[in-house]
Amino acid sequence: ALCVSQDFDFFYFVQQWPGSYCDTKQSCCYPATGKPASDFSIHGLWPNYNDGSYPSNCDPNSPLDSSEISDLTSRMQRSWPSLSCPSSDGLKFWSHEWQKHGTCSESVLDQHGYFQSTLNLQNKANLLQILRNAGIQPNGGFYSLDSIKDALTQGIGYTPGIECNVDKSGNSQLYQIYLCVDTSASNFIQCPILPSSRCSSRIEFPSF
Ligand code: 5GP
Ligand code: 5GP
Ligand code: 5GP
């Protein structure tokens, strides 16, 4: 009988706050299409193991073929922009994400399925709206890490992982939000293990 092996336990669906990518010492570059929306954008969908370790670069013979995802490109430019320097149209970032992470879930999702599922996940939970509804705004203010976690847990139904980085003045700030997703890449689940957060107890939510 045909048996499809599944070589990972769950996905991390990771979104980044662009303001916190850009205001660091390293700075950032906007794509040629202009400044991205002032909203969380996708970093990636990462196969993971329940013990916190993860597979990577699982298939060197499967580079991203942009013709496979041409129908998704305009959505990806909006929802999955690359902010690294030099300025890029995203294809380099998406290719990196596919090679490093996407190739490790090829047993369940081909290239088109991987990117389509990731885009669809973003529409299932409006992180910025959930935070705004709790009075947590991207205005350069400081908020307790617990208030951010609590708001997102209430709004999504599952506890997120929160990752911080530091701005130019050394302030701890909200950088990435991790949600856990089942192996079909369609439903949020309780995280089997949360990523380490590197956050202070009060963190900045910078504007973008
Ligand atoms: P950093 O060192 O900036 O936290 O992470 C660098 C890269 O390692 C990430 O962009 C991602 O590709 C990978 N990575 C970091 N943490 C995790 C994790 O917990 N799970 C998975 N699957 N990848 C991770
Ligand atoms: P990871 O390996 O951690 O999944 O992805 C990070 C890699 O993607 C780095 O090499 C980084 O330079 C590149 N990259 C390109 N654009 C972006 C972006 O907008 N955000 C992040 N976090 N990484 C980006
Ligand atoms: P990577 O190994 O993925 O190139 O980069 C490691 C980390 O450095 C990423 O997780 C990301 O946070 C940061 N990084 C990489 N390139 C850039 C960049 O152009 N600007 C900023 N602000 N951070 C970057």
Automatic annotation (TrEMBL):
GO MF entries: hydrolase activity; ribonuclease T2 activity; RNA binding; RNA endonuclease activity
UniProt KW GTP-binding keyword: no
GO CC terms: extracellular region
Keyword Signal: yes
A Pfam match: Ribonuclease_T2
InterPro entries: Ribonuclease_T2_eukaryotic, RNase_T2-like, RNase_T2-like_sf, RNase_T2_His_AS_1, RNase_T2_His_AS_2
Matches recorded under CDD domains: RNase_T2_euk (cd01061)
Domain of life: Eukaryota
Active site: H43, E97, H101
Keywords on record: Disulfide bond, Endonuclease, Hydrolase, Lyase, Nuclease, Signal
Record GO biological process: RNA catabolic process
Protein family according to the UniProt entry: Belongs to the RNase T2 family.
The protein, known as: Intracellular ribonuclease LX-like
Organism whose genome encodes this protein: Nelumbo nucifera
Lineage of origin: Eukaryota, Viridiplantae, Streptophyta, Embryophyta, Tracheophyta
